[in-house]
Amino acid sequence: MVGAHHEKLCLIDGKMAFMGGLDLCFGRWDTNSHPLADAHPTDVNQALFPGQDFNNARVYDFEDVTNYMNNKLDRTKNSRMGWSDLSLCLRGPIVEDLRAHFVQRWNFIFNEKYDLSQQGKYTPLSLTTRDIPDGYYKEDGLTVQGVEAEEDREDDPEEDSRRHFHLPGGAGSIYDTIREGFRSNTPHYRGREVQQSGMSVQLVRSCARWSNGGATEVSTPTLPRSRSLLTDQHSIANAYMQVIRDSQHFVYIENQFFITATDDEQKPVRNKIGAALVERVVRAYQNGEKYKVIVCMPSVPAFAGDLHADDSLGTRAIMEFQYQSICRGGHSIIEAIEKAGVPQAKDYIRFYNLRNYDRINAGATMSNVEQASGVNFEDARKEHDDIVGAGYDGRGEETGAVAGQPNREYDRYQEAASHVENSRFDSVSECYMDGGPSIKDIPWSGSEEAEMDAFVSEGEDFQ
Length: 463
Known about the structure:
By secondary structure, the chain is of the alpha+beta class. It has 3 domains: 9-84 and 370-461, no CATH class; 88-222, no CATH class; 247-353, no CATH class. 27% of the residues lie in helices and 9% in strands. The chain is built from 12 helices and 11 strands. It has helices at 94-113, 157-163, 174-181, 209-212, 235-246, 273-287, 313-326, 333-339, 364-373, 377-387, 408-417, 448-454; strands at residues 9-12, 16-20, 87-91, 188-189, 192-193, 250-254, 292-297, 349-353, 357-359, 455-457, 460-461. Helix 5 runs parallel beside helix 6 (273-287), helix 9 crosses helix 11 (408-417) and helix 10 (377-387) crosses helix 11 (408-417).
């Protein structure tokens, strides 16, 4: 297994790219309502998240994922953790940057991992010179390691002048993408017609010698100061700060963590995204602008364990740094804004938790079906997971009813459940959706105390 900078990139025919934060793994698929409960006492087939797709990193992190059937999470007692993430579909000149990046990464790993005896199983990739965006060139005119040039570029003095700076680990060619690909009234890019979306796209990447063979980052002296975000070796952080400074109406930030600094006193934290937010909010107040910053983040970082336990020291440290970034310690964003003369920082910037609730339908209905069938719900549900290929014995469709063999516990439970009226409220996630019903109107089979015990939030009891 070769490490990477947490990349998720899919290229199709060199014309379309998908990139973003979504992992192709257990626990990441979700719906737009992010239901936390997935116990269906009257029909096991209604399960949305079979096997380890029902996951909660606050309770159990993934272990031994090759044996995917070993899911420890009991969905009659625990909630899952909803997953919110983003991916983008991109067309146009920006795809050329992503193609060059992919080739560079692939060839670097190929040269690192495979020797001559393995040639033929995999092969290096190549791009023509025409397809290599500016910024992937070394000062000697050769391409960076892994991106092979197969033809010379057309003579172009402006292009030649740009060829002689080297940004293997920085943003480099993104400026040519912005300047040439999305210049207003410019329907062509390097002689090819492009679909104009009206969007300027900036691609920044995190690379180093261990991941793609290039230097970390360098500045871009060939670009005008007003266009260059790479004024030092922190181009991604600088890109964030420049976007914040140039924003006109609002900034929306959604991240797994929020740790930043407003000045040099918040060591060891060094990034100054917090300082950029403070400066922009203060400027908005002084100019009488209507301006908002919205930051969304989890209430608790997604690491398993009791926050009070000794082995949760790292999680508590992350939360402490987040609070010092937001509102505590004397140098936080809220404190810095109000020290600068803004009466109410919350009128301009607010922080929100990505967290919701649900109700596990493990009440009297489930007990009655279990008693009538003589089968525990979880045993029937595990056998169901075997049938759909996400099973606990790893059998998939090779056994069970599909192969002419009975799924005894599943069949018995389902037969008993068929005599009970089905409920559409095995999850109450629709109650917090726009236009959804009131939670007060949702029926429950069982006592009020049992219903209160059935409410959950991500990783913890609702109480």
